[in-house]
Write a structure and sequence with these properties.
By secondary structure, the protein is of the alpha+beta class. It has a domain at about 125-250: Hypothetical Protein Tm841, Chain: A,domain 3, CATH 3.30.1180.10. Helices cover about 40% and strands about 25% of the residues. Helix 3 (about 70-80) links the parallel strand 4 (about 60-65) and strand 5 (about 85-90). It is globular, with a radius of gyration of 19 Å.
Length: about 250
């Protein structure tokens, strides 16, 4: 793992190393200004590749989508600095738990070449569906105006976003959270059958568990286990607290 960083003013934290999810979201709620995020440096990647150089025939290095972060480009530059090691840098065109699923696919492969082939074949099958609890953090990030955020808050609108093929798209806007949660489940079911699924949340474990109890049995009948987890600080900067959603691979 080569962590991205989140910066509150002059303070820099490595995601998942110096700051866990709960610490981050507690701090985010109190922030008057959105923190910034940054990719690792090429040197960070080169140092990891150097450590791995003696352990195998090469490295498969899977990263957050290039349209979402500069991470994958930093990895490519870092790989060029390491002589005598084959490094296959892969743009996942996605983020969060879908990257973990690609790592599982790679780990279950018999060779480096097979790992690269199987991972690349699954990249177009990745999907993320995300329900945001508030428009505040989209507004703080400059993606909508203050007026739009105020109107959305007054109407209790909950944005539903999707990530596919490296792009973030608006899928729906639903009045109230109680209506929005069944809507994201409906969108997930539209993509059945699935290969890997995770219910992801930002300090909303009880709702994530209820969703798991609803969809878990039907997916288990199809041979799919469902993971759950909390998103990290870098992604949480853009979603805000109480986000809910799915990260998955279509079969």
């Amino acid at each position: 793992m080569v962590p991205l960083k989140v910066l509150f003013g002059q303070e820099s934290f490595r995601d998942g190393v110096d700051l866990d999810g709960d610490q981050f979201f507690d701090r985010l709620r109190q922030a008057s200004k959105l923190p910034t995020t940054s990719a690792p440096s090429p040197g960070d990647f080169a140092a990891v590749y150097e450590r791995l150089a003696g352990d195998g025939e090469g490295v498969i290095s899977i990263h957050i989508g290039g349209q979402l972060s500069g991470t994958v480009e930093a990895a490519r530059v870092g790989a060029q600095a390491v002589e005598g090691l084959r490094v296959h840098v892969i743009d996942s065109r996605s983020t969060t738990m879908t990257i973990a699923f690609l790592c599982l696919v790679a780990a279950q492969s018999a060779s480096l070449a097979e790992a690269v082939q199987r991972v690349e074949a699954r990249i177009p099958k990745q999907r993320i569906i995300a329900l945001l609890d508030t428009l505040r953090y989209i507004e703080m990030g400059g993606r909508i105006s203050r007026a739009q955020a105020m109107i959305g808050t007054m109407l209790d609108l909950k944005p539903v976003l999707g990530v596919a093929d490296g792009e973030i798209k608006a899928l729906d806007r639903v009045r109230t959270r109680s209506r929005a949660i069944p809507r994201i489940i409906e969108l997930l079911r539209d993509d059945y059958p699935l290969e890997h699924v995770a219910v992801m949340h930002a300090q909303a474990p009880e709702e994530a568990q209820r969703i798991l109890e609803e969809i878990g049995p039907e997916l288990k009948r199809d041979g799919v286990d469902v993971a759950t987890g909390q998103i990290g600080a870098v992604l949480g900067t853009h979603t805000g607290p109480r986000a809910l959603g799915f990260a998955y691979l279509k079969r």
